[in-house]
Amino acid sequence: MTNEIHGRLQSVLREVFDDPELTVADATTADQIDGWDSLMHVNIIIAVEQRFRVKFAAAEIAGLKDKGQNIGTFKQALAKKLATR
Amino acid sequence: MAQAAATIRAALDPGLDFTAAQSLHRQLKRFRAASPPAGEPLRIALLSSFTMAQFAALFELYLFGAGIDASIYMPDYGTLRQEVLDPGSRIYAEQPTTVIVATGWRDLTQVPTAGQSAAQVQQMIAAEVAEWATLWKTLHDRLGCQVVQNNFDAPPWRTLGNHEAREGGGLAGHIARVNLALQDAAPPYVTVHDLDHLSASHGRWTWGDERYFHLAKIPCAPECQVDYAHSMASLIAAQRGRSKKCLVLDLDNTLWGGVIGDDGLGGIRLGQGDAEGEAFLAVQRYAKGLRARGVVLAVCSKNDHAIAREVFDRHPDMILRYEDISCFVANWNDKASNLRLIARALNIGLDALVFVDDNPAERLLVRQFVPEVAVPELPADPADYVRALDRHRYFQTVGLTAEDYRRADFYRANVARAQAETSAAGLDQFLQSLRMTARVGPINELSLDRSTQLINKSNQFNLTTRRYSSAEVLALTQDPSWITLTVSLTDRFGDNGLISVLLARLQGEVLEIDTWLMSCRVLKRGVEHLALHLLCERATARGCERIRGTYVPTAKNALVAAHYPSLGFRAVGEAAGAGRTCWELALEGRVALQFRIEVRHDE
């Protein structure tokens, strides 16, 4: 399940960042990806919501970019959404 | 490179997914970095109290889809009023020709509370409108620009429930009343963009997704920004004369169910009492409504002409009649050739056509061989045809004039004139038989809208193809160094309306013709001779010795390449720019031109 989510999330990020070569690991943080600013964050969440058919609360969206968060925690939040859908 | 632009334009659709639309915008940026636009981009300022960065990118994308390269200036977030009111702010250095005031309901300055008296609420409505009218006037006085102002989108919730619309202090009713007042208060240089309709068409709860407003002050649900941008771009396209002009309809399974050649008059499905038949009635009613406001209708069908026409003449449930169709083409030739034929017959460009056909193979063929023609995808169910067509906003308009309401009749009258022409012995005799009367005069408040419309959409009989907004035209009419002239023409078959506009500037002893255009409906009727005669009279009265004209070639105005020499002008060498020619006429000793038109002067 997490592997599948990883692949799908990575392909959404590739689409949003317009970079077909982009690879992310669980430890990757937003700061490490060029251009992941607050507006791009919104673009990412919109794309993730569309492609995974989930919906985040406004506070969750902001929280996903907080200090200490990374791709791993993003995937966990996503998995939780998918499980309760 | 042209291929890259065509690929982007072909992918554009108002229903694009948000992320896909953003990808397309990045493609556009790459394309424009490699191949910058040939002309000066349209300067637009986008003012809002919302975060409009995502919207602006999508807006730029759809403008490009409509053939418009724009440079968009956005001031800092949250500075809408300061930007307009401070004469030193950057907008006045940027000199935009169009300013968009992208408001939403949160920008209301006056919000009534339940229980307030009707008189108080009326005052609030007046104060609200006055607030925005002041901004429009300030912008217009300082920039001479066009303004596009959003109206207010009613929020989805109603604290007063159903009573919200009736109660003076109810927000929904208040917004509806403010929107009406805003529309009434808008001067000619302001277009009110109907944001409230856009919100309702998406569903108010869908449109008003609050999460992204709370998070990032995004004006509506993120995915709705795509259609919002398309809607706004369609208004700018309409102002620039880029709306479509003609709806070309297939017949079998597009206007009725079944195949007339196989099923016969009694076998096709059209009319009340049958779901499919009623769906086709709705399609016809929609087309008839477009015709009534000036969209030209044509038919392009693979059919025997007599059999196809018989449906229009004899089927009792047909809403569209044969007289509604300005160009009726039913034969067995390929549709790409027939669409070219229709464009020629109606004297309009291929890019002014929208082709509607239920058959995917025909749509594919037309897209491939006449890519200029817009071809919307049609769903399988005819009940969805109207939506499939309407959502593209092909025929967007920023104002209708008397000419629009009568356009279909003009085209029909042209058919009658063409028949009279073949029966009259000589051209001169034919022109006399038309019993033409022209009303001539400068551009005034009554002719401003129609003149601006012609300036922005005439392509063929247009010597310089210079486009001006109504604000710019208005300024010219008030400038004593400019002469403006309009010609309206009536003949025994009907009123052609205002059909020619000339703008000329006095430069010492020379009158320089800046703009000379005419509707192709009245070609070869002597109107050019009349117009030159009137211009010479005015030039002489103002002490000029010569009239100078320039021809600026475009893809569409080859028709008038020899316009000036045919009127007796002599060449004065190539002007700056590829293919431009410059011509002069000495006023003294010129040969008087003939015209068979009686003249009445308006002042």
Q: What is the approximate shape of chain A?
A: globular
Give the CATH H-level superfamily of the largest domain in chain B: SGNH hydrolase
Shape of chain B: globular
Q: How confident overall, as mean pLDDT of chain B?
A: 91
Percentage of residues in helical conformation of chain A: 55-70%
Low-confidence stretches of chain B: none
Our estimate of the beta-strand percent of chain B is 15-25%
Percent strand of chain A: under 5%
So what's the oligomer here? heterodimer
Helix and strand pattern of chain A = HHHH
**What's the N-to-C terminus distance of chain A?**
15 Å
* Name of the top-level CATH class of the largest domain in chain B: Alpha Beta
Helix count of chain A, per DSSP? 4
Let me know the largest β-sheet of chain B.
Answer: 8 strands, mixed
- Strands side by side in the biggest sheet of chain B: 15-16-14-13-12-11-10-17
**Largest pleated sheet of chain A:** none
User: How many structural domains of chain B?
Assistant: 3
Q: How is the secondary structure organized here?
A:
The complex is a heterodimer of chains A (85) and B (603).
Chain A: H1 2-17, H2 38-52, H3 58-63, H4 71-83
Helix pairs in contact in A: 1-2, 1-4
Chain B: H1 2-11, H2 18-34, E1 42-47, H3 53-65, E2 70-73, H4 80-85, H5 91-94, E3 98-101, H6 118-143, E4 146-150, H7 171-185, E5 190-193, H8 195-202, H9 204-207, H10 210-216, H11 224-239, E6 246-249, H12 260-263, H13 275-292, E7 296-302, H14 305-314, E8 325-331, H15 335-346, E9 353-356, H16 360-369, H17 385-390, H18 402-423, H19 427-433, E10 436-441, H20 448-457, H21 470-477, E11 482-491, E12 494-507, E13 510-518, H22 527-541, E14 546-551, H23 563-566, E15 570-574, E16 581-586, E17 597-601
Parallel strand pairs in B: 1-2, 1-3, 3-4, 4-5, 6-7, 6-9, 7-8, 10-17, 13-14
Antiparallel strand pairs in B: 10-11, 11-12, 12-13, 14-16, 15-16
Helix pairs in contact in B: 1-2, 2-3, 3-11, 6-7
